[in-house]
Amino acid sequence: MLFENEKIYPDCSVITRKIEVGGLTKSQLIQKLQQYYILINEYGERLLAHDKFTTSGKKYNLQTVELTVGNLGFPIGATTAQIFKKANELGLELCPLELGPYLRLEYLDQPEGYSGNSLQRHQAPSGSITISSGILSEDVEFPKGFYLRKIKGELWLRGYRADHLHVWNHDDHFIFCQTKA
């Protein structure tokens, strides 16, 4: 199905958020996630535990933009590399990996993403929002980044794996940084 009339960023509908990031150590950040009853899957835990996952001791603000793969001009989907390249051409930036936990803590009213269907393998789950960030490891078995999801009323910070051949669907949601304040 082609979506010929779909508008492309920046002429499309997007969700923007201003998020304060930094100021906590890694252990303080994990403790805060636990305090808010944020659930984390195994891949998310592996990302948080990795030596290259760092947190800024200084607070800073990020302006984020949430849009779909289709909003980037891919009516039939695209690979991660294609999505990131096009976003960069449109003036969007990858997010620091530490944005994932901070955004999860700020976005507590995410709509329910559970559809009652079992998870579709090798696809982004219904209602999920993938945070666009650089990867920590080229190892295909290591998670590539975070996504946010609400399942049966519970908020999740989840890690995901996707190789360079994975094609994201037209309606998958991504978050990029618009400007660094």
Explain what the structure shows.
Strand 6 (145-151) and strand 7 form a beta hairpin. The protein starts with 14 loop residues before the first strand and ends with a strand. It has one domain. The radius of gyration is 16 Å and the shape is globular. 31% of the residues are buried. Helix 1 packs parallel to helix 4 (99-106). The strands form 2 sheets. A 7-stranded mixed β-sheet has the order 1-3-9-5-6-7-2. It has a two-stranded antiparallel ribbon with strand order 4-8. The model has no long low-confidence stretch (mean pLDDT 92). The protein contains 4 helices and 9 strands; from the N terminus they run E-H-E-H-E-E-H-H-E-E-E-E-E. It is of the alpha+beta class and 181 residues long.
Topology:
Elements lengths: L14 E7 L4 H10 L3 E2 L1 H8 L10 E9 L9 E2 H10 L9 H8 L22 E3 L13 E7 L2 E7 L6 E2 L4 E8 L1
Parallel strand pairs: 2-7, 5-9
Antiparallel strand pairs: 1-3, 3-9, 4-8, 5-6, 6-7
Helix pairs in contact: 1-4
